[in-house]
């Protein structure tokens, strides 16, 4: 029975089309969504500070509709998980971390040679330093973004670091799906819809990193390129050790 399931899985993968490109939708949709956004969803308030508003405008104006709505959902889902876990956190820092976490997937970063998480984190750092935010707060946001695709570590760090990852894992992977009520989940999705999100986010990941495949070594984005880019060969940790110049 195991062999049959394996064969079916192999056939399904072989016949699936490559992951689609994340086609942007008209920017007007973003403006409407934000201008009519309630200050509280599912009992969680979004920060309404000058810093948060500027972060919203920057991400809204420089990313796709897909990434913008995903980033906003990450804040609310992360904040709800923070409430579930009884964690105290700075809403403004969590919000900036959520909003900037995928900025590095943008076209201008595609030949940077750095992991997209680092490009995203660096952009957040420049933004926060430009607003004279204390360095410890800047460090928390940078770390939250840089580690958001590194499972097993953020949950043991500061709440803002843990909750950016929790929000990403909830929205992308469905981890802890039933930790949020159906009512809360529906309210967030009504505000920031996710049509065909699974395939579209895979398309965004693919377009963001396909020109720098070496940055996927040892991380989950190698799975994305393996599924979505014909001919991609992932780095092999064991082979790297055995083929190193060390004689023993």
Task: Walk me through the topology.
Elements: H1 2-15, H2 27-35, E1 40-41, E2 44-45, H3 50-62, H4 65-84, H5 91-100, H6 116-130, H7 135-146, H8 159-173, H9 182-191, H10 197-209, H11 221-228, H12 237-242
Antiparallel strand pairs: 1-2
Helix pairs in contact: 3-5, 4-5, 4-8, 5-7, 5-8, 6-7, 7-8, 10-11
Task: Describe what this molecule looks like in 3D.
This protein has 248 residues and is mainly α. Helices cover 58% and strands 2% of the residues. The protein has helices at 2-15, 27-35, 50-62, 65-84, 91-100, 116-130, 135-146, 159-173, 182-191, 197-209, 221-228, 237-242; strands spanning 40-41, 44-45. The protein has a two-stranded antiparallel sheet. The model is unreliable at 1-17 and 24-33 (pLDDT under 50).
Number of helices: 12
Gyration radius, to the nearest Å? 19 Å
What is the terminal-to-terminal distance?
43 Å
So what's the overall shape? globular
Spans of at least 5 consecutive residues whose pLDDT stays below 50 are: 1-17, 24-33
- Average pLDDT score: 89
**Major sheet: arrangement of strands:** 1-2
Helix content: 55-70%
Percent in strands: under 5%
Largest sheet: 2 strands, antiparallel
Number of strands: 2
Category by helix and strand content? mainly alpha
What string gives the helices and strands in order? HHEEHHHHHHHHHH
């Amino acid at each position: 029975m195991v062999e049959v399931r394996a064969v079916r899985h192999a056939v399904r993968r072989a016949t699936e089309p490559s992951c689609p490109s994340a086609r942007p939708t008209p920017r007007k949709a973003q403006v409407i969504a934000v201008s009519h956004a309630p200050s509280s969803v599912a009992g969680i308030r979004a920060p309404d500070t000058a810093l948060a508003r500027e972060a919203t405008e920057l991400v809204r104006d420089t990313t796709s509709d897909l990434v913008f709505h995903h980033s906003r959902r990450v804040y609310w889902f992360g904040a709800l998980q923070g409430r579930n876990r009884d964690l105290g956190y700075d809403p403004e820092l969590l919000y900036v971390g959520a909003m900037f976490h995928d900025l590095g997937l943008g076209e201008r970063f595609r030949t940077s040679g750095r992991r997209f998480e680092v490009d995203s984190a660096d952009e957040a750092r420049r933004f926060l330093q430009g607003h004279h935010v204390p360095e410890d707060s800047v460090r928390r946001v940078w770390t939250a973004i840089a580690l958001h695709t590194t499972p097993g570590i953020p949950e043991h760090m500061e709440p803002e670091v843990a909750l950016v990852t929790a929000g990403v894992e909830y929205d992308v992977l469905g981890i802890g799906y039933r930790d949020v009520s159906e009512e809360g989940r529906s309210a967030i999705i009504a505000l920031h819809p996710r049509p065909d999100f699974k395939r579209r986010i895979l398309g965004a990941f693919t377009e963001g990193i396909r020109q720098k495949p070496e940055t996927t070594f040892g991380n989950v984005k190698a799975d994305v390129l393996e599924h979505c880019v014909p001919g991609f060969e992932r780095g092999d940790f064991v082979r790297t050790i055995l083929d190193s110049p060390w004689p023993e």
